[in-house]
Design goal:
By secondary structure, this protein is mostly helical. The chain is built from one helix and no strands.
């Protein structure tokens, strides 16, 4: 292999190496972004579960109030 071909191959390999480095950096960035999205989704789910518990507690209280006031249907 002459020097021109060796230099050309070396330049091609350097370009591939640089491109691969850029791909790796982008993968790391996307991993960080995905982790942030997952954390945000966990927060939303926690809030939803809390709201469901609050709604369930309110339903229980309303049912008890209706029973005390005699407002319940006998079909329940």
């Amino acid at each position: 292999m002459n020097d021109d071909r060796a230099d050309l191959m070396l330049e091609i390999l350097k370009t591939i190496q640089n491109d691969l480095g850029a791909v790796k950096r982008e993968q790391i960035s996307q991993g960080i972004r995905l982790a942030a999205i997952e954390d945000h989704q966990r927060g939303i789910m926690t809030s939803l579960y809390g709201m469901q518990a609050d709604i369930s507690d309110l339903k229980t209280r309303v049912d008890r109030i209706e029973r005390r006031l005699g407002l319940t249907d006998t079909e329940h």
